[in-house]
Amino acid sequence: MKFHCRILQRFLLPAAAVVLIAGCSREPQVTATDKGEVTLAELNKAYATWEMISVTPVPKTVEGLTNSPVLKGKRLPVPPPGQKLVLDPARRQVVFADQ
Questions:
Q1: Which of 8, 12, 47, 73 has its CA 20 to 30 A from that of 31?
Q2: Do 72 and 32 form a contact (C-beta atoms < 8 A)?
Q3: Band of the pLDDT at 50, cuts 50, 70, 90?
Q4: Closest CA to 70 of 94, 98, 97, 95
Q5: Whole-angstrom distance, CA of residue 86 vs CA of residue 93
Q6: CA–CA distance, 63 with 87 (Å, rounded to integer)
Q7: CB atoms within 10 A of CB 58
Q8: pTM of the predicted model over 0.85
Q9: CA nearest neighbour of 93 among 37, 42, 38, 47
Q10: Angle made by CA atoms 10, 15, 21, in degrees to the nearest 5
């Protein structure tokens, strides 16, 4: 019985302590506000993916695409002055268009 107690004291308890300490020092979870801005390439990928696999119609606005799992939690890019982001159904892309 003493042999089992020594193993427990020398190996298992320190190993458990290391595992607990390592688990406590992990990096914090990334929140939705930490994910940054989505790129046009990511928007176009989400648009193409939505068309191929979704049973619901493609959204009418770019804001509707942000519900895509690829874009979850990311902000839309700020368009240049005088322009806005739009879905171009003819080209099947997200583009900047004049307002």
A1: 47
A2: yes
A3: confident
A4: 94
A5: 8
A6: 10
A7: 14
A8: no
A9: 47
A10: 130
